[in-house]
């Protein structure tokens, strides 16, 4: 375990030189993304942050941006509206960023929620949570990889469930369209598994970029209610009586979560580039103390899930990548 004291010491070294100069936060208007944005701005470093969110979050996000400016006048936070459950909108947002920037140092991705209700598709025919937790995130990465390649220590951090992959996913139904296949118990592990297999491939193909798939632990963001159907009274009672009390009991604090994810975004502990790190180097998904994909848990330790990842690498990675390319091709 990386101690919170070590994390705080590392984050204290973030300055105009070591901070990501240009950062893109997708899902940063609430929850873990918002906590991490605040932690980054609070370092006092000169940073430019693109904060991507839905129209419905614009008013409260402008209030948040005003708060951030008061906290650190050197930080430039740019509100960027986009309904990124839609891949066409994701492409538009990416094109906007690419038209303004020549480099991106950090891409931080947290969109999504647990789908406790029935399957709901976007206008593009993709289930909403799968789009947010997987397809949108991968599309952002693919569009911004050229800009990440221009940075000195580029990082992509996807917050979902690194280390919690399953080897038993149905490779013939990656969109969970077969009758009865779409449930929260299938959808979440599938998104986690597809994310890890694809990020590992991207890491292998882009050795200059550090990729992190983060398991955040329990953070009381209120997001557990977002996936509820309005007429699902039984599940609503379950969330109210069981899940919410458990989250309140075991959740780590907001400040702790923000600092830990800031550490993931900036420390050379993962891949060797970033804020200097003199502790034990992180181990990537290939089991090596080198750059690549890191599966990082809520205590900032690297987890391998080695047996499962080996099976996925051999039997699933190619099929998942081919399927992903087929879905995303019209939006590249």
From TrEMBL:
Top-level taxon of origin: Eukaryota
Gene3D superfamilies registered for this protein in UniProt: NAD(P)-binding Rossmann-like Domain
Species this chain originates from: Capronia epimyces CBS 606.96
Protein name: NAD(P)-binding protein
Keywords: Oxidoreductase
PANTHER family the record matches: ALCOHOL DEHYDROGENASE-LIKE C-TERMINAL DOMAIN-CONTAINING PROTEIN, YALI0E05731P
InterPro entries (UniProt xref): NAD(P)-bd_dom_sf, SDR_fam, Sec_Metab_Biosynth_Oxidored
One GO MF term attached to the UniProt entry: oxidoreductase activity
Keyword Oxidoreductase annotated: yes
């Amino acid at each position: 375990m990386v101690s919170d004291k070590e994390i705080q010491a590392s984050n204290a070294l973030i300055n105009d030189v070591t901070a990501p100069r240009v950062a893109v936060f997708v899902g940063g208007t609430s929850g873990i993304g918002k906590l991490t944005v605040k932690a980054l701005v609070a370092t006092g470093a000169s940073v430019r942050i693109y904060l991507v969110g839905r129209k419905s979050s614009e008013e409260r996000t402008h209030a948040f941006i005003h708060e951030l400016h008061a906290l650190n006048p050197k930080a430039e936070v740019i509100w960027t509206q986009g309904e990124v459950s839609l891949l066409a909108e994701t492409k538009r947002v990416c094109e906007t960023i690419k038209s303004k920037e020549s480099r991106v140092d950090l891409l931080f991705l947290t969109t999504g929620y647990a789908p406790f209700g029935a399957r709901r598709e976007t206008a593009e025919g993709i289930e909403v949570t799968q789009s947010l937790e997987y397809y949108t995130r991968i599309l952002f990465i693919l569009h911004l990889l050229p800009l990440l390649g221009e940075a000195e220590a580029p990082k992509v951090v996807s917050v979902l469930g690194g280390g919690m992959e399953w080897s038993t996913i149905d490779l013939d139904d990656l969109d969970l369209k077969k009758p009865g296949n779409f449930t929260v118990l299938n959808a979440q592990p599938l998104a986690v598994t597809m994310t890890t297999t694809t990020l590992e491939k991207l890491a292998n193909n882009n050795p200059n970029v550090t990729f992190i798939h983060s398991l955040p632990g329990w953070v009381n963001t209120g997001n557990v209610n977002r996936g509820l159907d309005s007429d699902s009274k039984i599940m609503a009672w379950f969330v109210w009586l069981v899940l919410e009390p458990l989250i309140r009991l075991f959740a780590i604090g907001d400040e702790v979560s923000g600092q830990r994810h800031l550490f993931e975004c900036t420390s050379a502990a993962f891949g060797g580039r970033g804020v200097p790190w003199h502790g034990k180097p992180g181990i990537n998904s290939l089991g090596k103390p080198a750059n690549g994909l890191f599966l990082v848990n809520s205590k900032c330790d690297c987890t391998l899930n080695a047996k499962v990842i080996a099976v996925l690498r051999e039997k699933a990675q190619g099929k998942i990548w081919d399927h992903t390319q087929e879905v995303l091709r019209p939006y590249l």
